[in-house]
Amino acid sequence: MLYRAEPHSDKKAAYSVGFGAPQAAEMRNFIPVKTGLETLILPAGEAAAGAAARTLAGGGLVAFPTETVYGLGADAANASAVAHIYGAKGRPAFNPLIAHVADIAAARRIGRFDTPAFKLAGAFWPGPLTLVVPKTDDCPVADLATAGLDTVAIRIPAHPVAQAILRAFGGPVVAPSANISGHVSPTLAAHVESDLAGRIDLIVDGGPVAVGVESTIVGCFDAPMLLRPGGLSRERIEAVLGMPLARPPVEAENDNSQPLAPGMLASHYAPRANVRLRAQDVAPDEALLAFGPARLPGLDAAAAVMNLSPTGDLDEAAANLFGYLRTLDAKAPKAIAVMAIPEEGLGEAINDRLRRAAVAR
After folding, report:
1. Alpha-carbon distance 232 to 213, whole Å?
2. What are phi and psi of 190, to 5 degrees?
3. Spatial separation of the C-alpha atoms in residues 308 and 305, rounded to whole Å
């Protein structure tokens, strides 16, 4: 049922970055899915922030906007609430979650920061950067949310609605993207409603997001490592660090292995239609996700066409990516053909999402 409201330690991090078998994979069959909930939708504002904080404190699930995508939040310290996230999304329980906090003081209560981590936090928080750091000895984040790892993924979001909710709640909130696991991430409240109505308690509608792809994730290990490209470019991070980011081993791309961070499963961010990358033409039964001013052969007969950025602007393309994939997918094409996108700046994150969307399922 859906209701819409009217407006008004000393431990060393154990991350030799080898990827073993999922530590909690067996839990996937034991996490219940809460369906039939009355999902309330509230416009962003002081009343919505208060309602969100009360819902979180009561063990409920709240979807809210960040600058990257809409997140599905739960009290990070409440293992039962965290379990409901996995159930609502259909998310594998060995896939860790990001803990969102309001400020650096709150971040330091759950994670231990070395010099590179402090540099990155100082330069890019609040913002679209997640840092994976060792847990503090008294870290309150539930083990289920960290997938049994000795690390915790932390972010301070820049979105004012997310900030208001975090401050009203007063504790860490784990929040993966507010969609069915593996589906295209949500950039509008309507996307959340389409996927999760009846499965969660509250959606706070803050309008469209600005960045449009998830946060960049950097693991603060012996050498800082790019675990997931995202809304903050590799180049900007490396400029602050004064060194190149390490890359995760190839095994990270295996869906049967233990990921160090969210968004590292091989098949992810996927529409229902198959995705064909680096298309140089488009068939009549295909939809086209275009980029730039070029016109591909077959364009006029395509089932549907949307252009991420007619001028080739990568920031604009990132902001449009998930919304356009959802719109094209709704046309039920045989496949979605995607034009080539440069592997630079935010293009690295866009191509990462598209490659995962194109993995055979």
Report:
1. 10
2. -65, -35
3. 10
